[in-house]
Backbone:
């Protein structure tokens, strides 16, 4: 996995710092979106919270991760699938929120149809969050 992490960071022109490697490793191991507190807790005593914040901001800027707003006004971060990130993945893809375990998953291969807006309305962003029970909680 270390080789994969190094390759991703190099491809995105990010220096190979220990903090960036640890944060990226955390995202690669998780199959769901993470909140900032989860990231800090997982990396406690490894990297400080300022480094976590700066790393998340640089990953967002490079498109390695994306934001998922939640109903409680918090933000979750999810790794952006590198295979589909240049296909408008960041703007228009489906998320699934499990109401049992409170995890949010990116559904890379699930799309939704275009929405025709009334005249005079201009789209900036599309988001679809499906709520239900995930496969692990069924």
Residues:
């Amino acid at each position: 996995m270390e080789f994969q992490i190094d390759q991703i960071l190099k491809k995105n022109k990010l220096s190979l710092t220990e903090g960036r490697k640890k944060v990226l490793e955390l995202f690669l191991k998780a199959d769901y979106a993470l909140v900032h507190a989860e990231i800090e807790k997982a990396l406690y005593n490894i990297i400080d919270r300022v480094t976590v914040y700066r790393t998340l901001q640089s990953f967002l800027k490079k498109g390695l991760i994306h934001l998922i707003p939640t109903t409680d006004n918090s933000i979750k971060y999810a790794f952006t699938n590198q295979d589909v990130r240049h296909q408008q993945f960041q703007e228009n893809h489906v998320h699934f929120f499990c109401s049992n375990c409170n995890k949010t998953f990116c559904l890379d291969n699930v799309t939704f149809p275009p929405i025709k807006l009334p005249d005079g309305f201009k789209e900036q962003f599309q988001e679809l969050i499906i709520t239900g029970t995930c496969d692990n909680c069924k």
Q: What stands out?
A: Confidence is low (pLDDT under 50) at residues 85-90. The two ends are 30 Å apart (CA to CA). The CA atoms of residues 14 and 93 lie 26 Å apart. The longest helix spans residues 49-62.
